[in-house]
Every structure is written in structure tokens, then in C-alpha cells.
Write a structure and sequence with these properties.
Mean pLDDT: 82
Helix content: 55-70%
Number of strands: 5
Order of helices and strands: EEEEEHHHHHHHHHHHH
Strand content: 5-15%
Shape: globular
Oligomer: single chain
Distance between the termini: 24 Å
Strand order of the largest sheet: 1-2-3-4-5
Structural class: alpha+beta
Number of helices: 12
Low-confidence stretches: 6-14
Largest sheet: 5 strands, antiparallel
Length: 294
């Protein structure tokens, strides 16, 4: 469960946090610092930290709005999968193996295949309604949203995934507490919401909404060309949605933005669960470890 980083104003250090739930742990990132904290079978919190040398920050062109979004998503996916492999090794007490290019390629293929599924299958099903124009795009998005909601529901009910969803909730609570300037104790953090408007779940909702607008701009084309566009434009949708997510975070206290983020927050009811105290402790440790490195 990725938490997309964006600017905020927490405390005096003004750190912007992004995170992800791992297997028995949490990845926390701010700027060029990333920390992985995982609860081992012996009940200790194992910490791994590394500095991220982002290509986006090194290149002025790649850091421009609407260009950086797609790259940021792939970068987030890269480090997210790296964190999952690391946490699995710790949680299962397996010997840590090097994350090879073959595994990276497999992850990319899997993500692209799933993205294509959510974009293409709703389009094919909507064709049976014999609709045209904007109405077609709206119905297609309703079908896509139905797929998305069903997927979130099924994932949230999967027993093996329950603890990861709880760690996801712990991650959000810790970030919310930090940005509110509250004391980072288990008792204090536990009082905060497990929902956060910058979560990747909210990001996916923005992608669905933006697909209605973007696909409406495509001129009438044949069936297979329309399918091709829905795959080719996935990075474009990601880039636009990323910028909108940053705007929503910057103006998160605006009544309009609060209204816009409601659906994404509602979806997080599926992708997060109330964490246990020891999970919150892991999230707090992750934030403190990142703080120490700034």
C-alpha cells in the first residue's frame, strides 16, 4: 500500500513523509532518506536505512510537473517491492537475497498487466451497452470503479493480508500524528485517524476520474485503437493524477479539496485496518529513524 509523498507542513522541520506497509513492518520515506522497520519473529524491530539517489532530482527536465509523476510512480514501485522482499526475509527468517533485475522486470510486468486489465476489460464490457461519446466514458468509468471497489473488498477480506492492512493503518496514524505536531507515543498516535488523503488508494481514485476526462478528448476511433490508447495513456493518467494529488495535499484544508478527497478516504476503509499497539510502535520507530537522518 503505497503512500504518495507530497508537501505538507509538519512541525518545524517541514518533512514530507511517504510510506508503505510491508510484511510485519513499514517503509517510511522523506526526501532522499528511506527507512525500513520490520518486526522480527524474536519481537525486535529490525531497521534498514538507505539514501535514495533519485534520477528525478538529478535532472531538471525530469523534475518538471507532468513529467515527474510517471517516473515517481515507477520509482515508488521499485523501492516498494524492494521493501517487500526485505521485510519478507526478516519476517520469515530467511537469508536475505539480492533483488535482481529479473525480479524487478517481473514486478513491472505484473503491475502493467494489472493496469491494462483495469483499463481494458471495463472498456470491452461497456461496448455491449452500445453507447457513444461522454456517456460511454462515464459508464466505462463506473464499470472500472466497480472493478476497483470489488478488488479492494476482496483484498480486505483476504486473511493472509489482514496484518499488512493493519500496518497500513499504523503508517497513516503515525504520519497524521507527526503532521499534527503530536507526541509520537503509542497512546497518542493511536488516537489519530487511519485514513490519509495522500494515500495511494486516493491516488487510484483520481486516476479513474481523470480517465473520464482524458478519454473524452480522444476522437472517434476503431475498437482496437481505443484499446491501445487506454494502455498507452496509463503513464499520462498517472502523471496528471500525481500532480492533482500534490495539489490536494497542499490545499488539504480547503473545503473543495476536502470534498474531492472524500471518495479516496472512503476507499481506505477497505485498505487500512485498526492496528495493534506493537504495529504503531514500528511506525513510530520508522518516522524517528527518518528524522534522525535529516
Amino acid at each position: 500500500m503505497n503512500h504518495i509523498m507530497s508537501s505538507s507542513e509538519p512541525k518545524e522541520k517541514n518533512l514530507a513523509f511517504g510510506g508503505q506497509a510491508l510484511m510485519e513492518g513499514i517503509m517510511m520515506r522523506s526526501g532522499d532518506q528511506m527507512v525500513l522497520c520490520v518486526r522480527s519473529p524474536s519481537n525486535e524491530i529490525v531497521t534498514h536505512a538507505e539514501e535514495i539517489n533519485s534520477i528525478i532530482k538529478r535532472n531538471r527536465v525530469l523534475s518538471l510537473p507532468f513529467i515527474r509523476g510517471g517516473l515517481m510512480l515507477f520509482e515508488t514501485m521499485y523501492y516498494g517491492m524492494k521493501g517487500i522482499f526485505y521485510s519478507a526475509n526478516i519476517a520469515l527468517e530467511e537469508e536475505e537475497e539480492q533483488f535482481t533485475w529479473k525480479e524487478y522486470l517481473l514486478v513491472i510486468v505484473m503491475v502493467l498487466a494489472m493496469s491494462a486489465f483495469f483499463m481494458v476489460v471495463p472498456f470491452i464490457l461497456t461496448n455491449y451497452f452500445n453507447l457513444t461519446g461522454v456517456l460511454f466514458n462515464v459508464v466505462e468509468s463506473v464499470v472500472r470503479m466497480s472493478f476497483f471497489i470489488t478488488y479492494l473488498y476482496l483484498v480486505s477480506r483476504w486473511g493472509e493480508f489482514q496484518r499488512i492492512l493493519m500496518y497500513h493503518g499504523a503508517e497513516h496514524k503515525a504520519i497524521n500524528a507527526y503532521e499534527a505536531g503530536d507526541e509520537l507515543t503509542v497512546e497518542s498516535v493511536a488516537k489519530h485517524s487511519r485514513l490519509n488523503p495522500r494515500c495511494g488508494t486516493s491516488f487510484l481514485f483520481i486516476v479513474v476520474v481523470m480517465s473520464v476526462i482524458l478519454y473524452s478528448l480522444i476522437p472517434p476511433l476503431d475498437f482496437y485503437t481505443k484499446i491501445a490508447y487506454r494502455i498507452i495513456l496509463i503513464p499520462v493518467l498517472g502523471s496528471i493524477s500525481y500532480e492533482l494529488l500534490k495539489i490536494s495535499a497542499k490545499y488539504q484544508n480547503s473545503p473543495i479539496m476536502k470534498l474531492v478527497t472524500i471518495p479516496g478516504l472512503a476507499f481506505q476503509k477497505f485498505t487500512t485496518q485498526e492496528p495493534e499497539p506493537d504495529m504503531i510502535e514500528v511506525a513510530i520507530t520508522a518516522i524517528k529513524e527518518v528524522e534522525k537522518r535529516h
